[in-house]
Amino acid sequence: MSPSVPLQEMIRAIRSARTQCEERGVIQRECAAIRAQFRQADNGGRSHNLAKLLYVHMLGYPAHFGQMECVRMIASPRYSEKRVGYLGAMMLLDEKQDASLLITNSIKNDLSNSNQYIQSLALCTLACMGSAEMCRDLAPEIDRLLRASNSYIKKKAALCAVHIVRKVHDLGELFTKAARSLLTEKNHGVVHGAVVLITELCERNSETLERFRKTVPDLVQIMKGLVISGYSPDHDVAGISDPFLQVRILRLLRILGRNNEAASDAMNDLLAQVATNTDSTKTVGNAVLYETVLTVLDIKSESGLRVLAVNILGRFLLNNDRNIRYIAMTSLQKIVGTDHNAVQRHRGTIVDCLKDQDASVKRRALDLSLALVSASNIRSMMKELLSFLSSCPPELRSQTASGIFNAAERYAPSQRWHIDTILHVLTTAGGDVRDETVPNLIQLITNTSELHCYTVHKLYRALLSDISQQPLVQVACWCIGEYGDLLLRGECQETEPVQVTEDDVLDVLETVLQSHMSSPSTRGFALTATMKLSTRITENVDRIRSIVSIYGSCIDVELQQRAVEYNALFKKYDHMRAAVLERMPVIEKNSQGHINGETIKESQTVKVKPGEPQQPPNQVCDLLDLLGGSEQPLQPSPALGSTAPPMPVSTANTVGGDLLDLLGGLEPTPITPVATVTVYEKDGVTVTLSCEKQSDSGLTVTLTASNSTESDIRGFTLQAAVPKSVQLHMKAPSGDSLPARGAAKVTQMVVLNNPNKVNLKMRLRISYTSQGSAVQDTVQIDSFPGLGQ
């Protein structure tokens, strides 16, 4: 066996290896030599061998056989060996290994050593890998060192105390008095450690938080000293005096001032001074300003101070650093609901960020731009958003289109503008819109009788130029079928009249029917439109009969069924054809939604009442079949009893049946409000449910979700399922993100139709992403409030 070589030579040999196999050979030889020397009783080069082993560990090779050598070297009286031993313990040991318990006594002895550097080694090791048992045993020693006279030891002890509090929350009370006394120290390192320790204590105990609110004047005084102090070579970073300590103090002030007016008032002047005096030309100054803004927005600060904070974020938007622009928009997104007018002042800068090359900045700018849309700026903002839609990356088109639809529905200045906007979106990004866009636009067109002529002319032109956008083609076919007579007249005051013949219209519909780009649902729309034209034209009825008869043998069963039924109208029920194919009545808001020729079944959560009779087995099986995950255990709902997670399920009904279904249930019915109840509450996420009865069989359910945690929740979705006999239409949610501390809520409306009057039972699936972790939960509801089930 070759003798062990010095560390520098081993590193040189490893780096000069040409292949991974050659590198492994060098390391294996060295590890074998190190093992042999570890076995020798009298080994003068132990620290040298362990140092080489640590380098091998850093390269990713096994080095666990050196753990016991670390324990022996920690117990050595020599500082050079202790240093390498403690370093090895921090790298090779963790709290899950039994070997870590062997060094507890050595650490305790070294904490009482007269050499401050040996004490420091023990403190660093305990703070790095101390287990809960070690923390309980050594906590009194750390408290003693917090009161020592040596500043070097006190700052190390403070950071070690932070680790102990995180491991064992109950030990926080032990360090409360010592932590407060450390704030009077002159040494910045000690004060920094004290602030970190106090922050940890306040976040974990509300009583401790109230106790430390008395220290706000002291913290304000320390912060003022840092802001107005002159140049200090020991603490100056790019012209800012100890920015690390400033940031830590601002974070602590944010915690102490939250929901407390007295503490907030005590720090308002300081925050204004920091915001106005800190240099924003350097990254260090921007870091301090950002923490200042977060503190101002989180405490009960004055209105003028909040405007100043928003203006600072506005300046960040002009920064060349994309990271600074990103965090600025993230912060503005959180406060746009509470300080809407202040954020509106920076609307132009935010819209300019839509042109940024960075995908993350562009997505944040889109979220913020959609939140800034209001009745006063709808035209200008929509112009920018439509321009962005035409050039945005594919992954953002769906979100952009949905945001434009929601804004247009809420703030449309006129019905014509509303229709033009939606048609523009369908023309630009029709393949990326949600399914409910088609029925929603059809409903809008139906309700604006004065624009029927304008709309059908515009859609006919769009159909001539492009038939690849399926939602646009579906709406165009529907309008041509309903209002084809207005198109053939050629009289339209709102747009330039176009002379269209019956053959031209039928040619376009035949093109749609024969195009390989048309989906089955689109062909269904086109065939129905062709059939409807048989009552609106006079000279080409035989051609329509021929077109319909061709599809009586179509391979698509859905289209074949339509054609057969329409042929029956021609042959057996021709006297009823005009009545059956007359114009659709006005579609009310609460009518059953249809999505691209399919009826969408969705459902929401239902409460389970104790002692209530169970659903019949066949209905329960139907419900579980809808969910596709019945093997998962149900979680009890905090407010309603046991519940289970629902998943959104869509089931396709025949399109012919859908057409006739639209004729019923159009009379408005009185709405009966029902109390709101909580159906889900876990990990800071709360979902409440309220019901409004629309008719004997119709019910509108509103779900509202909120987030009371300290972090934002992304990708929030509600999915639901009901028994097969219940029809359900889940409308688009108001958003997919839940800001922290309940800053905004997400609402989702669900329309249920229960024609068979079965006992409603629904399962709800709740999915979201919090702090980078995906969460999915389920809840079941067995009764709706106010229905007397």
From TrEMBL:
Residues 672-785 form the GAE domain. Pfam families: Adaptin_N, Alpha_adaptinC2. Its main location: membrane. One of its GO terms (cellular component) is AP-1 adaptor complex. Belongs to the adaptor complexes large subunit family. It comes from the Eukaryota. SUPFAM superfamilies: ARM repeat (SSF48371), Clathrin adaptor appendage domain (SSF49348). One of its GO terms (biological process) is vesicle-mediated transport. It comes from Oreochromis aureus. Keywords: Cytoplasmic vesicle, Golgi apparatus, Membrane, Protein transport, Transport. It is found in: Cytoplasmic vesicle membrane; Endomembrane system; Golgi apparatus. This is AP-1 complex subunit gamma. It is a peripheral membrane protein.
